[in-house]
Structures are given as C-alpha cells and as structure tokens.
Amino acid sequence: MAFVQRWRVITAFALVGAATQLVWLTYAPVTTVAAEHFGVSESAIGWLANMFPLLYVVLAIPAGIMLDRWFRPSLIAGAALTAIGAALRLVDDGFVMVLVGQTVVAIAQPLVLNAITGIAGHYLDEKDRPTGIAIGTASTFAGMTAAFLLGAALPAESQLTTLAAVGTIFAAVAAIALTVELMRAGTGPAASTSTSLAAVRATIGDSYVRRLCLTVFFPFGTFVALATYGQALLEPAGVSADSASIVLLVNVLAGVVGCAVIPVAVLRRGIELPAVMVGLTASAAACLLVAVAPNLATGFLAFVLIGLTLLPALPIVLAMAERHTGTAEGTAAGLIWMTGNLGGLVVAGLTGLLVDTPAWAFVLCATTTILGVPLALRLRTNAPTLSAH
Question: What is this structure's pTM?
C-alpha cells in the first residue's frame, strides 16, 4: 500500500475520532440553555454526556471483540452510527429524540475509540504505529476542544439547532471519508484475516494487560474529575466561570499537543515507563499546587501541566498494549478504555462529594494520580507477546 494512502486512512479515522467527542459534548458547554430549551433539568442534560462512559463500560469488550474479528466492517459501522445518531437529534426539536441520538452515538463510540490501536496495526508499518496511535488519541481531545469552542461560539438558545447541525455535518463527512478510504485500502497490509476467539480469551485473561488497565484507572479518573468539576473547584478561589472555561480549554489543548508529540518520542526511545511515571508525578504535584495555593495563575499552570503530562499516558499505554497483544489489540484497547471510564466514574464521583472543600478535592486528585506510579512499576517485567503464542 502506498505511503500516502496509509496516512489518508489514519487522517480519516482521526476525523471520526474527533467527531465522536464533538457529538458527545455538544450540549455540555450550554447545559443551562439546553435545559431551558428542552424543558428539563440541568441534570437531565448532563446525562446526555454521562451516558457515554456508562455505556462504554458495558460495550467496551464486545466492541473490542468485534473489531478483532471483523475490523473494517465494525469500524465503518461505528463511523456510520456516529453520523446517524448525530442526525437523529435534528429530526425533532425535543429532548426525547436528542436522547435517542446521543444513545446511538454512545453505542458507536467504543467501535471507534477501541480501533485507535487497530487502525495503526492494520495500516502502518511497525515503526510508524506509535505516531498513528498518538494521532488517533490526540484527535479525541481535539474533538473535545472543538465542542467547547463551538459551545462558546453558539451559546444562545436559538443557536442550539445550528450547534447540533454543525456536529452532524462534521460526523457525516468524517464517516464518508473513512468509509471511502477503508474501501480503497482494503483490509490493510498488516491485517490478519480474523482473530481467534482463543486469542481474545487469552487477552482478557492476560496479567500484563490487566496491569496496563490498572495503570490508567486512577490517572484517567483524575482527568475526568477535573474536567467535570474544575470550574466549581476553582470558583471559591475567585476564578470566574469565564476564566475557568479558558483554563479547562487550555488543559485539553495541552493534552492534544502532549498526546500528539510526547508518545512518539517516548516510544521510539523505549522509555515508556519512566515517561509515564514522570507524567503522573508531575500531574500529582500540579494538583497539590492548586490545593495549597488556589488562584487563577496556579490553576492555569496546574491544568496546563496536567494536560501535557497526564493525558499522553493513555496513548503510551495503548501502544504498549498493541505491541504486546498483536492481533487482539481491539480487545486490549477495549479493556483499557473500559477501565479508564470506570476510573472516571469512581474518581469523579468521589470528587463530587468534596466539591464544597476544593483543597481536599485537589488532594484527592493528587493521591489518585500518584497511585498510578507503583502500578506502572509493575509493568517493568514484560510478558511474552500474545501474538507469539
């Protein structure tokens, strides 16, 4: 397969990855306005986004198995369902249809995000796979950034339909582009015909994969908690809602840069574990900084540092999983994403209980982040790759 064609597949996939996040967070930046428009509570609007991690936990492994067995059709289905779900929100200007559309996209999301390692494994040479995984992961945070920017640009109640329509158009274009590129490229030069169920079972039961999952549980949870409650935790320190929104946006932008750049350099030098542990330690220190001295300056510094150092741990771990599992990378990625989302539910839930005491909430986030270091240390002993079995 030609070099350019390979990267066209990766680019089209990155657009679909961004689309899933853009559609997921459509109503998050305009929660109050959306609640008034649809005549429901703000909590109900929150569930338009909260259902995604919950359904991911349920669907992660089945989606991973589907990708391992039927990679190309499963990925195309995920892209198509993302566009269809986005479009369903425009069928009727009521909350029920919006909920149905978001649910369809939430079902599709694991088929797309679990494929981040698979798309690199199927269509890129081994030396280029870390770059492919980094681009795929960074695209998800780019989609989050786009959602926040669009929410800021179209904040009025009269603009809600336009806001949803922009996401729908983007998702449809991305789905068409990926389908066309996958059909042109075929199954991929590095693809196997299908992964045996024995390999899938071996991946689920593999101790090294379980250690990878545990490594991302707490750090991923910290990111979700800070993204969810960052504004509320900074407010008592005199940080306005507008300023906090900028801090959170820069946090995600730093994550886009970090995920696109750091994993590539780290994986090529073979320093995955030191990089992960340094990132976790730096992020924990950042949480402690804002716990001890909360203000706009320390909040900005802490959230930028967290974006740059904490978020790149995810593509690094995904690349380690792809290298270890071989043809069962979809199942491994599903397990990692599932564990990360579980961590998000747990740590964000605990942080929510401490939202009235921001210092303790940030200490909690620091603690959960640093817990990833001893878990990462357990990865020093590499198990034989499953693909060799």
Answer: 0.84
